Amino acid sequence: MTVNTLAEIEGLIRDQDDWRSRCINLIASENVMSARARAAAGSDFAHRYAEGHPGERYYRGTGYIDRIEEQLTADLKRLFACDRCEVRPISGTNANEAVFSRFVNPGDLVMVNSTPGGGHISHHRMGSLGKFTRNIIDFPLSPDGYHIDVEKSVFLIEKTRPKLIVLGKSLFLFPEPVRELAEVCRQTRTLIIYDGAHVLGLIAGKRFQQPLAEGAFLVTGSTHKTFFGSQRGVILSSMDEDSWRRIDRGAFPGSSSNHHLHTLAQMAICTREMIEFAERYSGDVIRNAKALAAALDRRGFDVQGKEHGFTESHQVAVNVGSHGGGEQVSRRLEANDIILNMNMLPHEPLSRHDHPDGIRIGVQEMTRFGMAEPEMERIAELIHECLRGGNGLKEEVHRFRGAYQQLHYCFDSLR
Fold first, then answer.
1. Residue 341 belongs to what H/E stretch?
2. For 249-274, b where at least 16 C-beta lie within 10 A, e where not — what string?
3. How many CA atoms lie within 13 A of 347 on its CB side?
4. pLDDT tens for the chain, residues 1 to 415
5. Distances (CA, A) of 219 to 40, 96, 122
């Protein structure tokens, strides 16, 4: 539908704000910023450029953003207990690009999680990694499909000696075997890259694994999933100076020019919130994910990972093939303002990517709006009622969601 006037555009913006305030948002790759952080979006930084490093810019007039960027970098080093931090990538994929462009040459062998096994598109031939090598193989998986088979992977790494391996997933229920693969990777001089896009906030809260301490060469991530925002990327490491210089050039000029200073300022605010609240928040998120998974299981849903406690992250995966599949189920739920996404599951062929059996659920945003384990029980009940053909659920969803409008785990809530 064509939008003809400026007023219509502005009206659509207002409509989006209003609509999402009435939805139960369970998209696993989204979160919301505090009012304090959102307010920084309209600052003068939205108009400005700052190529290069603080104090060494190619543009003049950057004194204030220099101070913010330096403090943000220091805060992230403190939060993640690392020596080096790159904040200039403007997305997680952009961060991956900065790394791949400097450490992967044509023909280099790289081992990744497959798409059905949860791997992100930027790790594959059709994504960022595929720009630098086509020689990409998949980790062997355990029978449940949600864990890497360590024994087979060790054998494969010893045999093929990949340039690097990429751990971390898009469908990410359980920690990755960083520590278990670190020794063989040291022997074969294979770099461990850990894409923590989905679990960055859980890592910050010390409630998930700690990949750098376990042996990862570096960690990339998005800053707006389990982290509080804004929508950007980050690279973390304690690598040597010569290696880090390659990352530096990969970030600029390799994969970015100006790095969106207004969202950098917002991220500085959000990072202070993470320092204050990450431990409690991440614990509550994981507890809620487990509670929602168990509640769905009790209602007869095929919740994945049951033999391992369903999940150790913010995500829940459900096989809804018996309900028409992930594409159909996600549309039925959206019609009742319950928002989530269809998702491939490990048993599925790539040809089913647009009509998979699975759905992926994330509880991090609703947790931030103050929902806890009793509310997860109610969400499971609403999903169940919707898929049984319940009518008029949208009004009930709005009524339920209406009681959860205040954002928690932020400085706004302390005022």
1. strand 341-343
2. ebbbebbbeebbbbbbbbbbbbbbbb
3. 10
4. 777 799 999 999 999 999 999 999 999 999 999 999 999 998 999 999 999 999 999 999 999 999 999 999 999 999 999 999 999 999 999 999 999 999 999 999 999 999 999 999 888 888 889 999 999 999 999 999 999 999 999 999 999 999 999 999 999 999 999 999 999 999 999 999 999 999 999 999 999 999 999 999 999 999 999 999 999 999 999 999 999 999 999 998 888 889 999 999 999 999 999 999 999 999 999 999 999 999 999 999 999 999 999 999 999 999 999 999 999 999 999 999 999 999 999 999 888 888 999 999 999 999 999 999 999 999 999 999 999 987 779 999 999 999 999 999 999 755 4
5. 27, 9, 15
**275: burial class by Cβ within 10 Å (0-12, 13-18, 19+)?**
middle
Beta bridge partners of 343: 358
Token pair 């409630």 is found at: 207
For residue 294, give every residue at least 6 positions away whose Cβ sits within 8 Å of its Cβ, in sequence order, or none.
303, 310
Residue limits of CATH 3.90.1150.10 in the chain: 277-414
Q: What Rg do the C-alpha atoms of the chain give, in angstroms?
A: 21
- Sequence-separated (6 or more) residues with CB below 8 Å from residue 314: 28, 198, 199, 202, 225, 226, 285, 286, 289, 362, 363, 364, 367
Q: Do residues 270 and 410 touch, judged by C-beta distance below 8 A? A: no
Give the Cα separation of 393 and 415 in Å (integer).
35
Q: What is the DSSP string of 286-331?
A: HHHHHHHHHHHHHTT-EETTGGGTS-SSSEEEEE-GGGT-HHHHHH
Rounded Cα distance between 89 and 141, Å, is 31
Q: Which residue has the tokens 């690097």?
A: 164
Tell me whether the omega of the peptide bond preceding residue 230 falls within 30 degrees of 0, making it cis. Answer: yes
Domain 277-414 in this protein, CATH class: alpha beta
DSSP classification of residue 250? I
Alpha carbons 285 and 372: distance in angstroms, whole number: 8
CATH of segment(s) 38-271: 3.40.640.10
Single-letter amino acid, residue 102 = R
| Cα distance between the two ends of the chain | 43
Ranges for all domains in the chain classified under CATH 3.40.640.10: 38-271
Q: Return the number of other C-beta atoms located less than 10 Å from residue 22's C-beta.
A: 16
